[in-house]
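Hi X.,

You mentioned you wanted examples for the new student's onboarding notes, showing what a folding record looks like when two proteins sit in one file. Here is a clean example. The first protein comes first, with its sequence line followed by its structure tokens.
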Amino acid sequence: MFKKCYPLTILLCFFIINSCGVYQTVHNSSVASVKSNKIRIGMTKSEVENTLWVRNDEAETMIDEDGNILLVKWYRIKFDTKDKTPFIYKDDRLIGWGKDYLLVSKEYIRDKIHERKTASEKNNEATRVGQRKPPIEVVEPDKDAIEPSRIEEKTPINHEVKPRNPYRLHSTGSGFFVSGDGYILTNYHVIKGASEIRISSFESPLKLMGVDNLNDLALLKINQTEKYCCVFCNFHELGENVVVAGYPYQGILSDSLNITEGIVSGLSGVGNDSRFLQITAPLQPGNSGGPLINQKGNVVGVVTAKLNALEMVKYTGSIPENVNFALKSSIITNFLQVYNVPFTITNCQTIKEIKTTQIARQSRRFVVLIENWQ
């Protein structure tokens, strides 16, 4: 009898095993659920990837509160979803994972977008350019990371300002028109905390259309068209001449546009951060958010940060000279595309260079003073 029922018995056992969930992970569960109990803090990146049976090139770097560089890799660990889970590594060792990794690894990460303490809390550590630590660090080979400082957009006012609204003028910075539809680009830290955002040439407050905290960008808009706006170029060449246009030291220097010259001294920022250009053009408080312009009159970046000279002296014994940074125009144009902002871009390699005086005349048309009212 057993011989005759043997095939039926096998089929019945297979059905019982399958219904009990032995093959559940193959049908509708994530890979992580197969081996999640084998993931441990301290595992190497290759050990984690072998455990999860996945490979993924999507990654980003972050800086923790102590200046350590962290690697964040995103894995799509579920077969039935496009959601990705972050895994955070420090020195090639896993320190946390999951959507709540800020809590899991809070010993190493204070927040995802590099938010820092206010300038008053950090006076002894850095001269800040805004209210947020820049997304770059100086990492010395045998020492702790040195914090570069924001180009402080807050400048002292030596005359009484009669408010146009219930708020007080808190700080100023620079910005520039990127579209004839009235869109203006600046640094996020320039307008952070503002109750109203204004430009000197427009009476009504500006609308905040979007921000990119990680890259320190903010998109503003006025309710009218603008005749003049910038033209972008995403080509960068080591040693090329560049111009910074902005409104530094409002209330101390001239209220008109200020121009400084320099060169592109590096094609990446601190720690080989490919988002940035290193430039020698001098920067002052209030330059934050202003355009970096090549010798052909095209915008190739936005001024963002400089090294903290005082901190560098502590660690190296020398004062850095003209080590400043601008976010590349390719990051800016990607940001504008996210918000469907029309802009103009050109192949500047085919354009002839123009005089700096001509660049200054053109810049007056599209570079504006940003006011942060709180």
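Then the second protein repeats the pattern, sequence line and then tokens:
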Amino acid sequence: MLTSKLLNIEYDASTLRVKSRETATREFKQIYDKKEAADYLRAMAAMANSEGGDIIFGVTDSPRTIVGIEEAMPDAANFGSSVTQHFDPFIDFEIDEETIKSKRVGIIRVRESKQKPVICKKVRTMKRIKGKKEIDETVLEEAAIYYRYGPKSSKIHFNDLERLLKNRQENELKSILQNFEIMQKIGFQNVGIVDARTSEIGSDVSSLYVSEETAKNLNLIKKGQLVEDKSAGSPAYYIVGEVELKKGIEVAIPDSDRVFPDEAKTKLAPTFKRHFPEVFTGNKNLTNAQLKHIACSLKLRDKKNDGKHNTQYCCYDAKTRRFFYRNAFLKLIENKIKTSKADMEKWLQEA
């Protein structure tokens, strides 16, 4: 038996039979069909409200065997727009694929939501054939909350919803107490409040709310993001990026400097294939998991999407809950391929 690190499944190397079963955190699909998108969204919401999970495409049901997919997996940015239209809060996910014996296997990896419950915003129906008739079946219902019960995605039961709401209330209270303790330590007169969300829909601006007295002591410089500087002993932070001094508003990274994982993988794949032909044989291509492992090994990003990153190279958007690389990261990787080829090859093999 072999184990796919990306897909997290066990399979037989000769027959491609899959030993792993469907569970609350794993669901198999034979093909990716955009007409079935509502089903995928429902499963994603249920996983986000539970413990997260994977929807794996290119595996037959009975017997469970890797057959691969011919169709392209969706673009993460476009698919993310559909997710946003149907659910709130946003579902944190990644789209990736792996080639196993010339067979492409796709995956949508969903992370457990930190703001449960994720709620459906609008109705979505699908055409189904029942008997000899074609009917419109409701797959997503407005105000519905979906949850994983074994390998199925269903409306949440009362006891589970009660538990989710209780946990959220406890976490909010814990956060309030922790912030209050911080305010006591640094003095209420020195405290400001940062709204981690953007101030308007479609805007890339966050607001810093401070009293007039606190504002007098703020030193903001233009051009940049919040970056940690350890050169002066204890860690300090400075702001790099456009800063608009109205009520302490910082303009976030422009869209032109946001390279989402799928796009970064596509842009860098030809370079990797050219320099590492022994790794990328046949139809094998660079995966998001390999790129992530390289970035983590270079200490440019945290293993968690919303973790602590070197914001010169990669960032996490708190509003959309999406991770992205920056153009500087692409340039750095292309340079590292030339200057640190042995390390890069090792990291590719490890991922």
